[in-house]
Each structure stands twice: as C-alpha cells, then as structure tokens.
Amino acid sequence: MYTEGNSRLEYTFPLGQYVLDRAVDTDKQLFMKFVLQLRTATQDRMQKYISTRTSMRGDSVKEKCPAPVRVDSSLAQILKIDMLDGLLASDTQFGQTETSLVQDVKASGNANASSSVNVNAATPMTLMLRIDDEVLNESGMDSYTIEVVTIFTMYFISNVKKESMVRLLNTGRGFTQFEDGSINPDDDLLRICPLDRIRGVYGCIARFEVVSGLHEFEGTSVLSIDPDEEICNLASETWAQAQRTASMSSVHAVSTHANRVRGNYSIDAKTRQAFLISQDVPWSEAEFINDASLSYLQYPQHSISIFSVNLHIADHTRLVSAQRITLSISTRLSENLALFSNYDAQVRIVRIQQVRSVISTVTGVHIDNIELRPDITHTLLAIVLSIPHHKSPYQEQRVRRLGEHLSRPGTNVRVRVEAMFAQVIETWLPDYQIGSEFAILGATVQVHDTPAGHTVAIYAQTPAARGVPAHNCVCKRINSAHGETALEPHLDVFCTLL
C-alpha cells in the first residue's frame, strides 16, 4: 500500500518460490524494498523507493503455515448433515405432516433416508451442516470452521434422466473435485443435465447454488441463514420476495422458518451453517410439449445435490492467496449518514458490521474479506470484496456477472441489497431522516493474476485418521417434489466420502 496525499495505490507483488527461505530458516527480520515508477497523464515520471514496514520473521511464517494435524475421528463422524423439507411454524413442529427432518443423513446404514411428506415444488429445502462438538473435544480440537465451497444441484422431471445420472454417479464419474474444494462437472454429466437450456435436450437442468463460496443471485435460489436475528430477518424476507410464487404469507412463512432454524440449531456461521434452497424450477413449455404425460398441475420433480465442504482448524487457516478477484461496489450515502465522520467509534463499528453482513449474506463472500473504503467526503463509499482464487472455471464468470447485475438497476441482487440497506439505515438513529438513502451506483471487477506456484500463503489441510482429506466431502441428494395433485413424493439421500 502506497499513499501520496489523497491518492492511494495498492499493489500485489507475485513472489518467487524461494523468496521467503531466508525468513523461514533464520531468526533474522526480513524487510523488502521496491522501486516504484509512476507516469502521469502528461508523461511526467516519478520514482519512489518504498519498503515494507512490518518485518517478516520465521515465527510469523510458521504460524500461518502450521504442520498438518491428524485427528482420531473420521470426517463422517465430525461433520453432521441435516436436511429438512417443509417450513417450520414453531420450534416443536419436527415430525409433523408439514415437515420432514432427516437428522444426519450419514448416520443410517448406507446413508439413504426416505420421507412421505407431500412437498410442494415452491417449498424450499433446508440444508444444515454442523460439527459434532463431542467428537472434536475427544480429539483435542475445538476450533474448526466450516466453509461451504460448492452446492451443485440437478433438477429432473424425467425418471429416465434421473436414473441415468444415478448410474453415472455410482461409477464415481460425473465431476472433478480440486484440492481447494471446487467442483467441476464433467462432459458426461453435462450431456445428461446441462447448466443452460439447450434446444432438443429435455428432462433435466443443472444449477450452481454455490460456486467457490459465491451464492447464485440471478434466480435467488439460495439463502444463507445469518446468525444475527436482524440480518436473518432482512435476508429471508428479501429472499422470499424474489421468489416466483412470492406472497405476503409465503414471505412471513420463510422468515419465521429461517429464524426457527437459526435458533433451534444455534447457527453461528462457523461450526453450524444452514441454507435454504429453492426447488421452484421455471420449466419451459417445451418440456411439457416434449412429454405429453406431464402437465403444469402435476409433474414429478426430483433433484440431486452435490456439495463440497472445507474444514479449517481456525479462522487464520482460511485460504489466503495472492491470486484473487476484487469486486468493488460503489455506493452513495446521504450526508447525514456518512459512516466515517462524526460518529462515536463504537457506533461506527456496529454500522460498518451491518453493511458487511448484508453484503456477505447476499453474495456468500466471507465477512472478513469485505472492506469499506470511504472517499474524502465520506458520502461515497466503496465496498470491496476480495475473493480468493479457486480452480473452478465458473468462479470468474460468476463474479463478473455479479458485478454486471449490481451495476444494472432492477436486477434481483441489486434490488435485494438496496432493500436491505434501506431497512438497515432506518435503525441508525438519531442520524436517520426520512428520505435518507444508501444507494448502489455500480460495480467493477478486477482479476489479480499471479503466476502458477507463486502463492504467498496457503491454508493448512487437516486430514482425518483414515487418510481422507478434510475438504473432500461430497454428498448427493435425491429429492422428489410434486404438484398439488401429484402422488406422494419420496426423499433419498446419498452421501459419499471421496
């Protein structure tokens, strides 16, 4: 970071593979010096010598790259996966006809579970991931953090397509998983179930609910349940309002359900996470023309969800890489709401945290990777999302499309964020006034490329005792949801450790 007057320049330098050897192998303090050459618009040149202020020592590097730790329990014992069909209206509604709770789908023999609950296609499915505290304590580890990297779902209205996909997945084929947890569907899978509608291909459509930690935003298909009650209410209400079948009653039902799950499962965004996933797929008319046995009022819908999870020993082991994508959201605040002026420090911290929580909940970017940068007037604010690079070929595409949608008024994600901002600033009393605004102006995306092998730091992987890497957990879910006049559905869950 280099500052000259009111101008600030930020550079990311790729480092050679052995540049830190001197710091690691000795107790000496290592500083780095650089020559910065600048050229103005009038071709004037300026040269500055800059150096790092913070020394790099062997102890510091070793702290960020701890030795791999082995635990006494397998990954299947540490990670619990709960699934819930239906919406909770009370804390004690589990087991009633309106809902079906499958508690830890891996615990029952071959990890298959079934339910006879009649699930409407418009009813979201709830996925909950939690760490078994007792297993961790017995292993001497108590600081794990869950990071959901990918949720990939295939939706079927063709039993033939569904059975073909099950056979493909049972052979161990269908997708490739990278060491960072990213999942890339193979050509064999996409031929059966494409990501985009293809003329002449019917019966299945695939969707990334989460890719490289980023939430699907064009169809608003996934909601991360925030541990904060206020943010949870705002996020769930705006998410429900964006659904195709939104109504006042459905918005209230989703908001109530999200808060029941948040409280009942003690969601904390670290060791316990929960997601609502919309099952309402807008099937095209061509699908029903192709299969005369289907109708808009009655059709079977099945889904298979594949997801991958990273487990981190602690927050500081989260992926830190020189390779990253930066998404900068330009916003404007009313002068009376300027966050970085005329505020008590504690009030400012709370309000900044609210803004970061809104962006994190909607986009999926971890809150620690979101920074607020005001201009000199404090009314223009840049919300900068620093997204660690993943090997998924779909990551950069999603980030760029997110930037485009945030820059375009009227899109689902922009409307949703601005609606949440509008309700958040109403709590900023006594500064809030009628007519105050917190508006999005646009967004820009910048990809920071780093040569292969020149990563500054990596997170520590934690392999289980049975030799299974901690991040290699993939679960496959088959769910059936029917129209109002359809027959009883069923729920099958398959879980596989890769």
Number of strands: 21
Oligomeric form of this entry? single chain
Rough shape? globular
Uncertain segments are 109-118, 315-322, 450-498
* Proportion of residues in extended strands: 25-35%
Class by SSE composition = alpha+beta
Helix content: 10-25%
Could you explain how this protein is built, in words?
The chain is of the alpha+beta class and 498 residues long. The protein folds into three domains: 64 residues, no CATH class; 278 residues, no CATH class; 138 residues, Alpha-Beta Plaits, CATH 3.30.70. The protein contains twelve helices and 21 strands. The protein has a six-stranded antiparallel β-sheet with strand order 12-11-8-15-20-21. A five-stranded antiparallel β-sheet has the order 6-5-7-14-13. Helix 7 runs antiparallel to helix 8. The relative contact order is 0.17. The C terminus is likely disordered.
Question: Characteristics of this structure?
Answer:
alpha+beta, 12 helices, five-stranded antiparallel sheet, disordered C terminus, 3 domains, 21 strands, Alpha-Beta Plaits, single chain
Question: Quick gist of this model?
Answer:
The protein is α+β, with helices and mostly antiparallel strands and 498 residues long.
How does the SSE layout of this entry go?
Layout (H helix, E strand, L loop, with lengths): L1 E3 L2 E3 L11 H5 L7 E7 L5 E7 L6 H7 L10 H4 E7 L14 E3 L22 E7 L1 H7 L5 E12 L2 H12 L4 E3 L5 E3 L1 H6 L11 E8 L2 E2 L6 E3 L4 H13 L6 H17 L7 E6 L7 H6 L9 E13 L11 E10 L11 H19 L6 E5 L5 E9 L6 H13 L4 H14 L12 E11 L24 E10 L8 E7 L1
Antiparallel strand pairs: 1-2, 3-4, 5-6, 5-7, 7-14, 8-11, 8-15, 9-10, 11-12, 13-14, 15-20, 16-18, 16-19, 17-18, 20-21
